[in-house]
Amino acid sequence: MNLGIRAILYSARKWKKTLLVFCLLLAITTLVLSGLAIADAQEEQAEEVRGTTGASFTVERDISTGGWNGNYSTQEFMSEDMIQQIAAVDGIAGYDATLITLPRIFNDKGEELVHENYSFYNYGSYNSQYHELFLSGRFELVEGTHITDDMTNSIIISRELAEWNGLKVGDTLTGVYYPQNNTPEVDMEIVGIFDVVADKGDQVNMYDDASYYAYSSYVFCSMDAAEGLIKGWGEDGEGISEAYYYVTDAAQLENVIREVQSISSINWNNYKITANDEVYQNISSALSDTGTLITTLIIVITAVSMVLIILILTMSIRSRKRETGILLAVGIAKPAVILQYVLETLLIAVVAFPLAYLSSKQVAGTLGTLFGKAAENIIVTPEHFMLVAIVGGILLVAAVLVSSISTMRLKPKQILAQME
């Protein structure tokens, strides 16, 4: 009788054992397919995080390598050319720079604005959305627009400052660096209002002038306006002291920084670079931990399932010693007998695998929600099925071979003698 027919007849005759193996394969394959779909969704989320979270780095004067002139460091400031050279490096999506001034600000009636400090802590800005305070999430623009490099006399203020002084987007303010010294007056239009997301009682926590100012006293003005405020004053401590660069792919931050440091026209002994990727690192670490957990679960499920299948097949083959001995005694080779066992198992898999593919499409979404994934983002693909079918088939063949070792190492007479 053809071994294929024998395999089919045996599977039908031993339907309880066939059903047991079928249910086991169906459950295992469904879980593994679901796990692969969740793992892919996890990877897609990680890719999305890299693009949406991004990261930044700060280039600033290194005052430790410069001298001092009274209270001011003589370290060179950043030039416009230097800022633009760095901004041109591949991978940098945007930039901002800082020209710090401490102006007094007045409304259109000439009245000084109500605020918490003697003066304002003003950041001259090219593109305020890329300023470290906004990139870090401490500040969030809630009205109007950010300052861009094509604006000349624009200013962004805090919501608190706007509420205290009855200000809104579109109003005009006048900034004066030192009124008592008749420094130039600069008229600025309010183009945006930001909210302080960080703890109101948590100041900048830096050992510089900014630490003495409440967040509500921070303002951002266009770079042209900031330069207009100090025109004719010329203090040694005034100039562009730092710049912020936004990198779209946070995973490439280190590579971008290395390329920036390779710009030979910049004396890097006078400047230092600080990476700002805490948000990305925290999120990616959590995603990595979840990805590791999913992979571990897939491996554990597969390993435990293989042990169970081997045990079931071993018990089945041992219960068939008489049949095996007779087949060997009538001249059927051991490889042919083993092949029959393989066919019996694969016949069950041929039915179980496609059904598992269909069931996993329903189960994967439910399981994915346990890992914080949206069900619609968990998709079991044909590629997942092909991978599981091929690897699963190989593992099943290996399981049959392992299960047959104890019986097939005996000779036909020994097998039949054990059955007497």
Total E-strand runs: 13
Overall 3D form = elongated
Low-confidence parts, pLDDT < 50 over ≥5 residues? 203-207
- Could you tell me the strand content as a percent range? 15-25%
Taking the alpha carbons of the first and last residues, their distance comes to 26 Å
Number of domains: 2
Structural class: alpha+beta
Provide structural commentary.
Residues 19-262 form the MacB-like periplasmic core domain. One of its GO terms (cellular component) is plasma membrane. Residues 297-410 form the ABC3 transporter permease C-terminal domain. It is a multi-pass membrane protein. There is one protein chain. This protein is an alpha+beta fold. It has two domains: 3-49 and 284-419, no CATH class; 55-276, no CATH class. Helices cover 49% and strands 18% of the residues. It is built from twelve helices and 13 strands. It has helices spanning 3-13, 15-52, 80-87, 132-135, 159-165, 223-229, 253-261, 278-318, 321-329, 334-369, 382-408, 412-419, and strands at residues 55-61, 68-69, 72-73, 92-101, 104-106, 121-125, 139-144, 154-158, 172-176, 185-196, 218-222, 240-247, 271-276. Strands 1, 4, 5, 6, 7, 8, 9, 10, 11, 12 and 13 form an eleven-stranded mixed β-sheet that branches. α8 (278-318) packs parallel to α11, α9 runs antiparallel to α12 (412-419) and α10 packs across α11. The longest helix is centred in the last third of the chain and has 41 residues, at 278-318. It is elongated and about 115 Å long. The model is unreliable at 203-207 (pLDDT under 50).
